[in-house]
Design a protein that fits this description.
With 435 residues, the chain is mainly β. It folds into four domains: 41 residues; 101 residues, no CATH class; 120 residues, Jelly Rolls, CATH 2.60.120; 116 residues, Jelly Rolls. It is 14% helix and 44% strand. It has six helices and 28 strands. The strands form five sheets. A nine-stranded antiparallel sheet has the order 11-10-9-13-7-6-14-8-12, with no helix packed on it. Strands 16-17-23-19-20-21 form a six-stranded antiparallel sheet, with no helix packed on it. A five-stranded antiparallel sheet has the order 4-3-26-1-28, with helices on one face. A hairpin with a 2-residue loop joins strand 20 and strand 21. Helix 1 runs antiparallel to helix 6. The protein is elongated, with a radius of gyration of 32 Å. The two termini are 21 Å apart.
Length: 435
């Protein structure tokens, strides 16, 4: 009986997983891919942009990325790193309080109390449609300040009846005035009726992040092959696993100058599933370049926010379709799937090249103090990843899973064997007692 219990204990210990070794030699040996980072700017804090090629070959969440540098001929030295994600460092939008709203002659006048931070764009919420407006903006240090700084004159519009867009955004130079004074003169679009300007059309104002704080993007995939399918202009992509997509952008032929407003439909579905299982995201691209009633109107939007969840853990097919309606197709020259820019930042003790290793799913995510304390500074240098190469010293990592995971039936066989042994022992004991 003691022998049976000892055998079961040995099997249980053999089933325990062996933690993967994370020594530099082991990591480099078991990493399938490597890329060189040349430090042209010398030693110090450096950041490189992570391109789309890394994601399908690295482990999920990029947990297997490791950086090594040969320092003073002492062999490979692991460099701690931090991964950054480009995003607005300010809130998505703040509210600007409307003060002193009223009329002065044929104009609407009001003040805006601005958030305590730099800003560039101001979105004014205006009711009504089919109007043209001129907004004259001055910056104030206080509501009663005798000194005002003229910030410019801007055209706001709504061209609903012409099947075009509307724009009520003031595109300022980056400013930080606590107050803005607005003089708004609005009139109906020529040839339309029903619009009357009044202070009641001003419903509020919001302030998005400064353009200096907006997200940067990196290309995930790009195609110049577009097809016409009925009324739609279509581009298709086959996206590898785990490649993020967070925006879709379009390039048009430089010679194309016409105004337009087109709906865009983006759908994706994992490989091996029917198209009916696809998720769908919609948006609009537009261009309005014209002059009406002596006012110049300029607005262009050639990208659509689109976070595609199906692309994170498996390959996916992505279809981007522009609905042209009864209008001629847009002359699209390129369609890009883009992700928010991700950077790999580290501090190199010497100017020797740094090597990035990845492609080992057995590694666990590193825990670095550097990542917790990292802060980008003005002195951070930029570098580029070299071309992806197969690691010539690569060999597959031994299977370190628990024995019961590799052979799920072995524990049941062992238990049945122990039960049989115990049954035989019990039977023999019963016969001895009977005698």
């Amino acid at each position: 009986m003691k022998s049976a219990l000892l055998a079961l204990l040995l099997i249980w210990q053999a089933a325990a997983p062996v933690p993967p070794s994370q020594s530099p030699e082991t990591v480099q040996q078991y990493s399938r891919y490597r890329r060189t980072i040349a430090l042209d700017g010398g030693a110090g804090q450096t950041c490189v942009v992570i391109d789309a090629q890394v994601f399908p070959h690295a482990a999920a969440s990029l947990k297997d990325l490791r950086l090594y540098q040969n320092v003073n001929g002492q062999g490979a030295h692991e460099l701690p790193y931090a991964i950054t994600l480009s995003e607005p460092v300010q809130p998505e939008s703040d509210t600007a309080q409307v003060l002193n709203l009223g009329a002065r002659g044929h104009s609407i006048v009001f003040d805006l109390q601005m958030p305590d931070r730099p800003y560039t764009d101001v979105n004014i919420d205006l009711a009504g449609q089919d109007y043209l407006a001129t907004a004259t903006i001055t910056g104030l240090d206080s509501l009663r300040s005798p000194n005002a700084t003229r910030l410019g004159e801007f055209t706001l519009f709504d061209l609903t009846s012409q099947h075009l867009s509307r724009s009520t955004t003031l595109h300022l130079q980056e400013s930080s005035f606590p107050y803005l004074h607005v003089v708004l003169t609005a009139s109906p679009v020529p040839g339309t009726r029903g619009f009357t300007a009044s202070p009641a059309m001003v419903k509020g104002a919001t302030v998005p992040p400064s353009r200096e704080a907006q997200s940067l993007y990196t290309v995930s995939a790009e195609t110049t092959s577009v097809q016409q399918q009925g009324r739609q202009t279509v581009a298709t992509f086959t996206l590898p696993e785990r490649v993020p997509v967070e925006r879709v952008s379009f390039d048009l032929a430089p010679s194309f100058k016409a105004n337009f407003s087109r709906d865009v439909r983006i759908s994706d579905h994992p490989e091996g599933t029917p198209e009916s299982a696809a998720e769908t995201i919609t948006g609009t691209i537009l261009r309005v370049h014209l002059t009406q009633a002596g006012r110049e109107i300029r607005q262009q939007q050639l990208s659509v926010p689109a976070t595609l969840g199906a692309n994170m853990q498996g390959g996916a097919s992505v279809k981007v379709a522009i609905d042209n309606g009864d209008d001629p197709p847009l002359p699209v020259t390129a369609v890009r799937l883009e992700m928010r820019q991700r950077k790999l930042c580290f501090s190199a003790p010497s100017a020797q090249p740094v090597t990035l290793f990845y492609g080992d799913t057995g590694l666990t995510a590193p825990q670095y103090d550097y990542a917790r304390l990292f802060s980008a500074t003005a002195g951070t240098r930029s570098a580029q990843l070299g071309p992806e190469q197969l690691n010539p010293t690569y060999r597959p990592r031994p299977d370190t899973r628990a024995l019961t995971e590799r052979y799920p039936d072995i524990l049941w066989i062992a238990l049945l064997a122990v039960i049989c042994i115990l049954a035989v022992v019990a039977l023999r004991s019963a016969r001895t007692i009977h005698r």
